[in-house]
Design goal:
Radius of gyration: 18 Å
CATH topology: Ribosomal Protein L22, Chain A
CATH architecture: Alpha-Beta Complex
Structural class: alpha+beta
CATH class: Alpha Beta
Order of helices and strands: EHHHEEEEEHHHEEEEEEE
Largest sheet: 6 strands, mixed
Shape: globular
Strand content: 25-35%
Distance between the termini: 22 Å
Number of domains: 1
Oligomer: single chain
Length: 248
Amino acid sequence: MTARTALYYGAIDLFPAFTTEQQRVYFDKQEASRFDRMRPEVGKRFFWGRKLAKDALAKRLGCSPGGMTFSYTANGKPFLLGEPCHFSISHCSTAVAVAISDCNIGVDLEQLERRSGKLEPPWLQPENFLHPLSAALVEAASSSQEKARLFMLLWTLMESQVKLFDSGIHRVIKTLAIDLNSHTQPAELRVLAGERCFWRSYNKGLAQGTEVLSVASHRQLPKPELHIWQQGGLKKVELEPDLESVVE
């Protein structure tokens, strides 16, 4: 049977304010407790990640999002106990993304200009964060903007695989080496070392190209339906990936 996969994406600035009643619908006790400890901007991302995920899961499973409770693995990966539907949630400071599938899946979303306080941008020293072969791709880029784009693309590929395999980023940094061919459309990805999976990445069609969204699965799946929050609701859109794994 062909697996069904869907992506849901929304820019934080376009999401409306949410009510206390909505919190009661979409948060279980554990989530409500976590939310109460969050800064407002973090809480907004947390709420909309849960809302998008639970609405999509409820629609697929034919139930109500109210009362839906997530379980968690030892590494913190959320799942629905006893249900055949898989999902993954990610957010950055500007947007939220959710992937839903009949198969195991992982998603990561990052801003290209992501920084941490006064620290030097990570793409200026990629060897500290990436496998040496992947770091060489970033170092060879001709401009600071291209270095940032390549670094964040590679980072989302790693993070989405971590979520797929329910593993840890520090192990993947040391073992996963990726090569990119940017002369095709979409660009092609090959794994040179480390565990293999299938990826799709989106960049140019999201927030004027200022974010990268990568989705990892164990095998090649049909292209996902993409739903983007626009003018008060989710709209299904057609968006081709900017990068795909080469199937060998």
